[in-house]
Amino acid sequence: MKPAEVLALARQRASERQLPYAGALMPREAWLLVQQAGAKLIDVRTRAEWEWVGRVPGSIEIEWNIWPAQVRNPEFLVQLADLVEKDAIAMFICRSGVRSHHAAAAATQVGFAQCFNVLQGFEGDKDASGHRNSVGGWRLAGLPWGQG
To answer: Looking at the 3D structure of the chain, how many domains does it have?
Structure first.
């Protein structure tokens, strides 16, 4: 699939789901955009998650919630503006797609024109036993990541 096709599909998902940002991507689609369209992947998980669960090489790391207090990062949008151009394709990822949904919406509200949420996130959805990493997500898709 070509980047333009991926972006069109992501925008269609946003329209169908009435999302408050440009689009919604599956993990493999997001990786294609990183590789072929120069898109920026913004990882909004906590420092603890980056250290203990894993990182995506080359991603921009900005906590949506600050560890360990788990309070909203009041500097999130300022940090984002310092690291990402407002016209860039900005793709937000978290553990499962919830925090990244909110981050994409917040960035859109302050003028970032091409915000996308990475559905399923880094670890995917919970399975029947309540565990992650077996139902969707960046890691299960076999995309680049490292630990430690």
So the answer is: 1
Burial of 88 (0-12, 13-18, 19+ CB in 10 A): middle
For 6-63, the pLDDT digits (tens) are 999 999 999 999 999 999 999 999 999 999 999 999 999 999 999 999 999 999 999 9
In a domain, 93, yes or no: yes
Does any domain span residue 53?
yes
Strand, coil or helix: 77? helix
Greatest distance between any 2 Cα atoms in the chain: 41
What domain range is 89 assigned to?
A: 3-118
Exposure string over 14-43, b if 16+ CB within 10 A, otherwise e: beeeebebbbbbbbebbbbbbeeeebbbbb
Provide the whole-model pTM: 0.96
Residue 30 within any structural domain of the chain: yes
* Any domain includes 140: no
Cis peptide before 68 (omega within 30 of 0): yes
